[in-house]
Automatic annotation (TrEMBL):
It comes from the Bacteria. This is Helix-turn-helix domain-containing protein. Residues 11-62 form the Insertion element IS150 protein InsJ-like helix-turn-helix domain. It holds the Pfam family HTH_28.
Length: 105
């Protein structure tokens, strides 16, 4: 059994939009793209679900990827702050050991 052709995502979107606009039927779109009707149906379902989640999420709630990146930025910012403080402590410590003794004056 031959593998179905690989259809680029841009072409899938064009096909789905044509079906949604009523320009072609699912069967006709599948025949033209040389894929199964089930494939076109799946693309249509995925397209509509993606749009639905975008509308539901809206601008009020960041995506899970955005939340993950924000958490990573917070962790890195904290680590940078800790490293900065540690470097300052080391510098102060080194100055105290390398400079003249305060008790020898």
């Amino acid at each position: 059994m031959a593998r179905p052709p690989v259809v680029p995502s841009e072409e899938k979107v064009r096909i789905v939009l044509s079906v949604l606009a009523g320009e072609v039927t699912v069967a006709e779109a599948a025949r033209r793209a040389k894929v199964s009707e089930q494939s076109v149906g799946n693309w249509k379902r995925q397209f509509l679900e993606g749009g639905r989640s975008g509308i539901v999420a809206g601008k009020s709630k960041p995506s899970s990827r955005e939340q993950q990146l924000e958490a990573e930025v917070a962790d890195l910012t904290q680590a940078l702050g800790e490293a900065h403080l540690e470097a300052r402590v080391w510098k102060k410590s080194a100055e105290g050991h390398l400079g003249p003794s305060r008790t020898s004056r």
